[in-house]
Amino acid sequence: KGKMYARLPTQPRLRPTKLLTMSNRRVLSTIYQLRLGHGYFKSYLAKTSQDETPQCQCGAQKQTPKHLLLACPLFSEERRKMKKEIKPFLEIAVLGTQKGLEAVHKFICETGIATRRWLYGEEEEVEDTWGWGRLNEEEEE
User: Which DSSP string corresponds to 44-84?
Assistant: First the structure.
């Protein structure tokens, strides 16, 4: 329904910003998920029945994109760096301005928030699979 986009100061464009075309795919995907409100955070996964509770690891009632970016005490040191770059430090400025997106990019790279690996504590890289095997697998016969 685009509720998150409706609150942003700029409307979506057909062409993404320069930053969003230069990011690696994982960070870019995470930024879009945070902007849409659909991704690897518990408030969304609780709605889709993939997680039993929307509660954050810090004890907050809901782990939302806004909570992760602006308030979660688990990331206070990284957020302090982000606050220096974004004025005013609001959800709209963080996800809707070029400076905000640059700061969020750094924040995600440092913390890994809102990614599958971060949420489920996966240590090893998950291999890309397609069909019956890995994508780059050579025949071993």
Answer: HHHHTTSSS----TTS-S---HHHHHHT-GGGHHHHHHHHH
